[in-house]
Design goal:
By secondary structure, the protein is mainly α. It contains 13 helices and no strands. The longest helix is centred in the middle third of the chain and has 24 residues.
């Protein structure tokens, strides 16, 4: 085996125990392997939706990162030469089939082009039977005039969550997830703040669902935001969408203030963020 493949196979085998630096290295090795000999299905996928790097990032997050985070007992540990490309090809085939089915349901060719990218979804509308029906225009109607801001238990929890969060969590929420139509793309946030392993960090946070959406409430519940909701007694259930949306509003308000307090809003040039 080449040195690069030997390193890749070694990291692959123990990816449920990697630290952040090792995850960053694994991501780089996987991207290099996929770019070296992209399958024909990638060309079809790019024609259908997005650029190649976005599909490769989604594959990494869905099929490499998430099984390790979930502690999936069936997670493959042995990687053979060429095996990664086979996994990626099969992943693309599956996604292309899903795109085709969605177009059939929508009733016209090109309907998928009007469906927002799963990376840009927020999980405000979760339907286990249809993955995520995501809102792409989340706004934060609460402002500083809300006298309950520091007295409301949920708002207090949101403030504590944000104050204890790393900078990347704050900017992902304030500048991307909560930004409505003016939000920055994840890639732009990554470029401005130099966030390593940005795509699968977004997946861990819960703002970048797997391609096609979270398959169940329990899957979203494993993310950082999902765990925060559960900690506050908010059930992740189809009938509880309004409570989830209200919680997101509280979390977004806290994220906006925390970004301002840390000077992150100014760094991003987002002086127009809600006060």
């Amino acid at each position: 085996m080449s040195d690069a493949f030997e390193e890749l196979a070694g990291l692959w085998a123990r990816r449920d125990a990697l630290d952040e630096a090792e995850w960053t290295r694994l991501h780089a090795l996987v991207m290099a392997e996929l770019a070296a000999a992209p399958p024909g299905e990638e060309f079809d996928a790019v024609l259908s939706r997005e650029n190649a790097s976005a599909w490769r990032d989604s594959f990494f997050a869905d099929k490499v990162l998430m099984p390790a985070i979930r502690g999936n007992a069936a997670m493959s540990r042995e990687l053979t030469r060429g095996g990664l490309r086979v996994f990626y090809r099969n992943y693309l085939r599956d996604q292309l089939r899903k795109i085709g089915r969605r177009r059939e349901v929508q009733g016209y060719e090109g309907a998928e082009d009007n469906v927002p990218d799963a990376v840009n979804h927020n999980p405000a509308f979760i339907d286990p039977s249809a993955s995520i029906q995501a809102s792409t225009d989340l706004t934060c109607p609460i402002d500083d005039s809300d006298g309950d801001r520091d007295g409301n238990p949920l708002q207090a929890s949101a403030i504590a969550f944000m104050r204890g969060a790393e900078n990347w969590v704050v900017v992902y929420l304030a500048l991307h997830f909560c930004g409505g139509r003016d939000r920055l793309p994840l890639s732009k946030v990554h470029q401005q703040f130099q966030i390593p392993s940005y795509h699968y960090k977004a997946r861990q946070l819960g703002i970048a669902p797997p391609r096609g959406g979270f398959e169940s409430f329990s899957e979203f519940g494993e993310t950082m935001i999902g765990q925060w909701l559960s900690t506050n007694g908010i059930e992740l259930d189809e009938d509880n969408i309004e409570a989830i949306r209200q919680a997101f509003d509280r979390l977004c308000l806290a994220a906006f203030h925390e970004a301002r307090d840390r000077g992150l809003a100014e760094v991003a040039g987002m002086g127009g963020m809600p006060a």
